DNA sequence: TGATCGGCTTGGAACGATCCAATCGTTGGT
DNA sequence: ACCAACGATTGGATCGTTCCAAGCCGATCA
C-alpha cells in the first residue's frame, strides 16, 4: 500500500467464510465515494473535505475529525484523473526500461525506485526506446499525452543530448549517472566507481598484496576510466607499482584472453577488475593454470552480481536502494518546486566492498 | 550508472549547432491545444472533432479531412486525464516488479510487455508488494486511486488467491503462468515446460544418448513437476530407462552435491536439468572428475540465461516476446470487452532448445 | 408542396477534483 | 453596541473529454 493517510479498507480480518471467493465487496453496486458524498456524510461542504486532505491547517480540529471519520467510513480516495485534470500533475514518473546486461543492477534499481516513488505518492510508468533519438521523440508523447511529471534517466554517457531536450521542454529529470561532459544543469545521483576500486585496492593492500594489477575495459569509456582512476590512485597512495592495466570488452572469451595476458606479463598477486565478468575471466585463467583465487592471486570484481556470490568473488556493491530513493526525492522535489532547477543537487554515493573467498586467503 | 558496456563516446554525427539546445519549442507559451481549439480552427464543433477520432464513420469524408488537417497543424493530442475522467479508463496496466533470480527472464518479459502494451495504446505501471497478501491489499489503491484497467500477474503458484480477488473486484487480469489448481476462470499464457524438457530429451536421444537422467527440484513444485514429466514422457516414448531423478534446491553448493550423487548412482550419459543453475552443478561435478560435458556426459539446462551462453550450456529458451504480447492482447481485450471474461483464452506456448557445446559432442 | 426520414452536427451536462471569490460566524477594539 | 478583522466554510467556475438529446439539412415519398 502506498498512502500514509488513514485509509480503512479493513477487508482483512474476516475469514473467506466459504461461498463466493470475494472478501472484497464488488464496488460495482456501491458507486465510488467522491468528495461530495464524503461532505454530505460529514455534514460539511466539498471544499472543506478537500482542505482536510490538502490544507489541514485551514480546518478546525473538530471538523477535521468528523471529516476524517467520514472518509474512513466510506473508504474514500481522491481520484487521480480528476486531480490530474485540475492540477496538471499526474504523479507519474517515466523510466525507460533497458535490457540490462544480466547483472541484476537495473532490476534492483527498478524495484527500489518503485518503492521510493510510492512513498512519495508517485508511480513509475515504463517506456521503451531503441536509442536516444527515439527516446527524445518519445518525450513528446509521454509529456503531451500521458502527462508524466518527470523522468528518471539511467544510462548517461558523453554526448548525451537527452537532458538538454528535457530541459528545453521543461520536463523535470534526474539521472542515475553523472553527466560525462559539461552539460550538468540537472540533478543527478551516481555511485563513485573510483572510490569503489580504491576501496578494493586498499583492502588488497591490507591483506598483504604488493603487486596489484587492474583489468578494465578499453580506454575511452567514462565509467571504465573512472574505475581505473580509483585503483591507480590507491596503489600510488600505498607506494606500490602501477603495472600497465589489462583491457578487454565485456565478453567471456575476450576477458579470459586478457586475463591470461595480464597474468603472464605482470605476474600480479592481486587483480582489481572493472566488472564481475572481467573478474570471472581472471578466475577462469587462474583455474586453468592450477592456481587458486584468494590464495595465489586475490581478485575483486564490480557490481556484486549473482555470479559473484555464486563463485565466491569479492565485489564492489552499489548502494542501489539509496540511489533509487535519492533519485525519487530529487525528481519529485523538482516537480513540486520548479525553482530548484536553478540549483540542482548532485550526489556521489560511495559503494561498499563485499569480501568473499576470492580475496581473503593468505597472501 | 553502472552499465557493463564500454561505451566509447561516439558523440554521434550532428554537431550541437550552437545556440540554445532546443529543437523542441517550449510549449509553455502556446497553451496546449484542446478539442475546442481544433474545432474552432476546422470550423466545426467540438463533438465532431471527437467523432473524427473515435467514431470516424459518423463523419463525412470532407469534414474529416478538414478536421484531421487542423489536428495536424496544431499538434493536438487528446488529454489522457480528461478521457480517463469521463470514460473511467486509464489505459494503464499494473505489473508487480519482482526481484528476479538473476536469470534475465523477468527483465526481458518486462521490456517485451512494455512494447506490446504500447502498440495497443496502453502503458505499464509498476507496483511492489512483499507478498501476495500485500499485493491483494494494494489492488484497492491501484484500482480506486490510479484507476488501472488491468493487471498482469507473473508468478502463479498453487493456492494463489490473487486471481480470485481480482475477479471479485471485477479487475481484468492475465497471468503469465498457468493456474496450478482448479481456479482458472481467467485468461493465461504459459510456457510448456514439459514440452521443453521433452524436446531436450529427444535431442539427446537423437545424439545417441541412452541413459538420460533428470536433475530437478524437490517434488511438489508445480513448475518442477511439469518439467520432470516432459523428460519422463520422452524417455518412455524412446523406450529408454527412466532412472530415479536427482533433486536439489536452486543453490550452487546443493546442486553440485546432488549432481555428484546422481553421477555416482545413475552413471548417466546425459542429464536433463530443470534449470540452468542445476545444470551448472552438473558441469561443475563433471569438471571435478575430469570428464568433459558434451563429450562424456551431455547436459541441458532451462531458461537460457546469460550464464548458459557464457559456459556453452545447451538450454531451453522461453519465447518471452510472444508471451508478453499475448499477455498484452488478452488483458486489453478483456478491458475493452468484459464479456470475454466468460470464455477466457488459455495459451500454452512451446519453448525452444538452444543447442550449445554441452550437448553436442559425440556420445 | 409538405411531412418524414436519416445522416451529420450541435450545445449542454457530466466525470471529480481544485481554485477563487464571496459569505458566514466569532472575536476584539472602541 | 457597532464595525472591523479574521478564520472557517461555502457555492460556483473550471480543467478537457465523452455522453446525450435535440437540431439542422437535404433527400425521398405521398
TrEMBL record, chains A, B:
Residues 1-34 are annotated as: Disordered. InterPro entries: HTH_LacI (IPR000843), LacI/GalR-like_sensor (IPR046335), Lambda_DNA-bd_dom_sf (IPR010982), Peripla_BP_I (IPR028082). Keywords: DNA-binding, Transcription, Transcription regulation. Residues 33-87 form the HTH lacI-type domain. It comes from the Bacteria. One of its GO terms (molecular function) is transcription cis-regulatory region binding. Gene3D superfamilies: 3.40.50.2300, lambda repressor-like DNA-binding domains. PANTHER family: HTH-TYPE TRANSCRIPTIONAL REGULATOR GALS, LACI-RELATED TRANSCRIPTIONAL REPRESSOR. This is Alanine racemase. It comes from Nakamurella endophytica. The lineage of its organism: Bacteria, Bacillati, Actinomycetota, Actinomycetes, Nakamurellales.
